[in-house]
Design goal:
The structure holds 2 protein chains of 2 kinds. Chain A has 15 helices and no strands. By secondary structure, chain A is mostly helical. Chain A has a single domain (about 5-360), classed as Amino acid/polyamine transporter I (Up-down Bundle), CATH 1.20.1740. In chain A, helix 2 (about 20-35) packs across helix 9, helix 5 (about 80-110) crosses helix 6 (about 115-130) and helix 5 (about 80-110) runs antiparallel to helix 13. The radius of gyration of chain A is 21 Å and the shape is globular. The relative contact order of chain A is 0.23. Chain B has a 5-stranded antiparallel beta sheet, sandwiched between helices. In chain B, strands 6-7-9-10-8 form a 5-stranded antiparallel beta sheet, sandwiched between helices. Chain B has a two-stranded antiparallel sheet with strand order 11-12. The termini of chain B are far apart. Chain B has helices spanning about 5-10, 15-20, 50-60, 65-75, 85-90, 135-145, 180-190, 200-205, 225-230, 260-265, 265-295, 305-315, 320-340, 345-365, 370-385, 390-425, 445, and strands at about 30-35, 40-45, 80, 95-100, 105-110, 155-160, 165-175, 220, 235-240, 245-250, 430, 435. Chain B is elongated and about 100 Å long. In chain B, a hairpin with a 2-residue loop joins strand 4 and strand 5. Helix content of chain B is about 50%, strand content about 10%. The chains are: A mainly alpha, B alpha+beta. At the A-B interface, helix 6, helix 7, helix 12 and helix 13 of A face helix 16 of B.
Chain lengths: ~375, ~475
């Protein structure tokens, strides 16, 4: 029995792919680049990315569910594509590594300051290996549970009511940025949405119904909702200047939660985002894996995954401080965002050409 | 000494010499000859019943002539054996083989051995039927037939073990079971190549799809009511001769947290019990590990009112929390294992000794802190809340891994461990069905009968995991 991914699981998948470390700094990024009431920008940015998803939907329909590789190889010889594939897969694997290492280094602000980050990253890689070596359905099943664990953190919002105040919002919009409204600033804020382009690699596994895309939109909408929650909580919790000054305001808000048995919940809550980062690294790793698979189709999966994890670890070890990973993550995410838009824009015409060719061939033979 | 069996010996005509050859050196093998008719009767003394021997062999054949004996043998329940192997199998199953003119007839004289139906000791209930499965396969099937009086309850006889040839009966309800599941299971059982299996929990390890996983993948039960409810859910059950446990499949992880009692209580109470078990599951795997994590790395997480007590109680302890916790967990496991191996009467002594030694002396001697005792004891108790013994044993083992990870990397280690468990669980399939049903793939209807026990009017469908062609279970309205 061949399983297919249905809308519900794809929705969770999209949510989990989009959640990563950038969520924690989002209010700061918004305050720095967009200014007062920066949370409103989330609506606009979300709409832009919804359009990006729409492009994928067109691609799925025009390409009749075929994978990006099939489409590309339909018009370009494989030999020419190979170096391109190799570059892309190394990029994705390296990006996955940076996401993981960045999380570990960030975690070390809170705890384990003296532990070797490489040791923790090794364990992280082990988990990524465990997940990546499974088939896509098992990965999605695991992601469903990770979603439940990560998403339940949204339930903590009522704990902020005491310290949250509407007074901290102003009536003026998008004022008080460091250097006015810049394209760079808006782009930096939109990095938070990176990750959903993973869906392109799942086309062959989708149920051939539009319900799947409904799931993707719902997942995206839910993620937008979570971002709004995060941003509004931070903007009402701290003053505007504080949000601008704190690099990770979301972590700071969590420090204020006190339960009868436990204090300083950020220790635990932030750790739960480990799962979101595992998912990000795994999805980038998976993208690298399927791309490499086109070059070396005969290599056993286990060997390929092991090689990918070795690469992830090696790249991860290359970065030793948070400033480095943050800078590289930003660069990587810019490229990834460009790819997210470029891939459907390039592939849709190819799919159309192939469709016409296919029709012509069917017409001739028929 | 050993008599080498040839093809000829097994598939040839059932002659006296051949039969005797097959059972050479078996002291319990007996031969009786009846002069007037010239028949020879062979059987294994220990497994045939005296009464039936008297009724079906001694009385009819003692004075019968040849013609008369032949006339009797042609009537049922005497049946003709095809060859020597047929005879051999019949004798091993408790039949007598009656030989006349190089022809053999078999008659079943087997005596039902074993204990009577009693209450299961591993799965006790307060409200609900108290009968449990026994080691005798026929008695177990009789119990099932009494519960489900339908000709659609089908039984499929297989045998497992090349030497033991232990009978295994597969039960399913025609029309409710998914034929693919049934074929796949039968295929897997037929592929087993082993000399013998003795227990259902051993058998299922040969047919599960993930042999290296720590988790049990087939639900086993000793309770007929549980087995019957699985059958009616469109699942398949298997009863093995010599084992009081019955397996059912396909199985999901959360099936191990349900008990038939849940349905015998009011639904709110049943739901509360289910939730309690899920909490018990979390405590079992995580509580001690969390203690280790907090006391090793994250003291800031403890509210200051509790911190004083905790540091005071920890101050005398010379070990780091990780060793302290491993020491106590191992002691508890020792106590549990000792309690399980000892007769009940001495078992109580173990409880008292363990209680005093662990409860007081260890703390006074400065071996452990009071709070750790609470953590360890709570985890141990919580593990017994889980109705399935095999599952609770697996979870106790996992706990050690989590404690070590928490001792190494605190909360991060703990959650990494939990992540690994989730990944492990997500990779398991049972007859192709996901082990994580009803979460992934999600089925909200099933969740109503997994994490809670919904009211009966809400439980109208059979579980999706069984992929039953007949999905509706009941049509009760609110």
């Amino acid at each position: 029995m061949k399983e297919k991914l249905n809308g519900f699981h794809v929705a969770l998948l999209v949510y989990m792919c989009e959640v990563d470390v950038t969520v924690f700094s989002l209010p700061h990024v918004l305050a720095k680049n967009i200014g007062t009431n920066g949370w409103v920008a989330i609506f606009l940015l979300s709409a832009v990315f919804a359009f990006n998803i729409f492009l994928y939907q067109i691609l799925f329909r025009v390409g009749e569910g075929r994978s990006a590789f099939e489409l590309l190889e339909g018009v370009i010889p494989k030999g020419i594509l190979a170096p391109f594939y190799l570059t892309l897969s190394i990029f994705w694997i390296a990006l996955g590594a940076v996401v993981g290492k960045n999380f570990i280094l960030l975690y070390q602000i809170l705890a384990f300051q003296t532990t070797s980050p490489e040791m923790i990253f090794l364990l992280f890689c082990l988990i990524v290996y465990a997940l990546l070596s499974k088939d896509i359905y098992s990965i999605v099943k695991a992601i469903t549970i990770f979603f439940l664990l990560t998403c339940s953190m949204n339930l903590l919002v009522p704990f902020f009511f005491d310290n949250w105040s509407l007074v901290r919002f102003t009536t003026s919009f998008f004022q008080g940025t460091e250097s006015g409204q810049t394209i760079h600033g808006w782009l930096e804020a939109s990095l938070v949405f990176v990750g959903f382009e993973f869906i392109l690699f799942l086309f062959p596994n989708f149920e051939r119904r539009q319900k799947v895309f409904k799931g993707i939109y719902i997942g995206h909408a839910f993620f937008t909702f979570a971002l709004l929650l995060v941003a509004i909580v931070s903007f009402g919790f701290f003053s505007f200047q504080e949000v601008q000054a704190l690099p990770y305001p979301v972590i700071n808000t969590m420090e204020y939660i006190e339960l009868p048995f436990i204090n300083r919940l950020e220790n635990l809550i932030f750790t739960f985002f480990l799962f979101a980062n595992i998912v990000s690294t795994v999805t980038f790793g998976y993208m690298g894996q399927v791309t490499l698979k086109r070059i070396v189709p005969k290599l056993p999966d286990k060997v390929l995954v092991f090689a990918i994890i070795l690469l992830v670890f090696a790249v991860g070890c290359f970065f030793r401080i948070l400033r480095q990973t943050e800078a590289w993550l930003e660069r990587g995410f810019y490229i990834e965002m460009a790819l997210a838009f470029a891939m459907p824009i390039v592939l849709i015409p190819i799919a159309m050409v192939l469709k016409r060719k296919g029709k012509a061939a069917a017409h001739e033979s028929g | 000494m050993g008599h080498v069996q040839t093809e000829e010996d097994l598939f040839g005509k059932p002659t006296v010499k051949r039969i005797e050859g097959l059972f050479q050196d078996c002291a319990d093998f007996e031969r009786r000859d009846y002069e007037p008719s010239g028949i020879s009767v062979f059987y294994l003394v220990c497994i045939v019943g005296n009464d039936s021997l008297m009724r079906d062999i001694v009385l009819p054949f003692s004075d019968a002539g040849k013609e008369e004996a032949l006339a009797i043998l042609r009537r049922p329940p005497y049946r003709l054996a095809e060859n020597a192997r047929d005879c051999m199998n019949g004798i091993l199953e408790g039949c007598a083989a009656i030989l006349l003119n190089d022809q053999a007839w078999l008659i079943d004289l087997s005596e039902q051995l074993g204990r009577n139906i009693e209450q299961s000791e591993t799965e006790t209930v307060i409200a609900g039927p108290h009968d449990g499965f026994v080691e005798n396969i026929f008695m177990n099937i009789a119990v099932m037939r009494k519960r489900i009086r339908s000709p659609r309850l089908k039984t499929l006889l297989l045998s497992v073990g090349e030497i033991s040839r232990t009978p295994l009966m597969i039960l399913y309800i025609d029309g409710l079971v998914n034929p693919d599941n049934l074929n796949r299971l039968v295929q897997r059982i037929e592929n087993i190549e082993i000399d013998a299996v003795f227990e259902t929990n051993m058998l299922v390890q040969f047919i599960d799809e993930n042999p290296n996983s720590v988790f049990p993948q087939f639900m086993t039960t000793e309770r007929p009511d549980a087995a019957a409810s699985k059958l009616l859910g469109g699942k398949i059950i298997g009863i093995l001769e010599g084992s009081p446990s019955v397996f059912s499949c396909p199985t999901a992880f959360f099936d191990f947290f349900t008990s038939p009692d849940d349905y015998y209580q009011r639904w709110l109470l049943g739901s509360a019990l289910r939730l309690l078990r899920i909490i018990g599951f979390l405590i079992t795997i995580g509580f001690t590990a969390f203690y280790v994590s907090v006391t090793t790395f994250h003291y800031e997480m403890i509210p200051h009112t509790m911190l004083l007590n905790l540091t005071e109680s920890r101050s005398k302890v010379p070990f780091p929390p990780l060793f302290e916790a491993l020491l106590m967990e191992t002691t508890i496991e020792l106590l549990r294992e000792a309690g399980a191996r000892l007769p009940t009467k001495i078992g109580q002594t173990i409880g008292i000794v363990g209680g005093i030694v662990i409860g007081q002396a260890a703390v006074q001697a400065g071996f452990t802190s009071n709070i750790l005792i609470i953590a360890v004891a709570t985890s141990a108790i919580a593990s017994f809340v889980i109705p399935s013994y095999v599952m609770s044993a697996s979870l106790r083992l996992i706990r050690f891994g989590l404690i070590i990870l928490a001792g190494m990397y605190g909360n991060l280690g703990l959650l990494m461990g939990i992540g690994l468990i989730i990944i492990q669980l997500s990779g398991i399939t049972n007859l192709g069905a996901s082990y994580l049903t009803p979460i992934a793939p999600a089925s909200f209807k099933d969740m109503l009968d997994t994490f809670v026990r919904g009211p009966f009017w809400a439980l109208t469908k059979r579980p999706t995991i069984s992929r039953s062609p007949n999905k509706t279970r009941q049509k009760m309205r609110k």
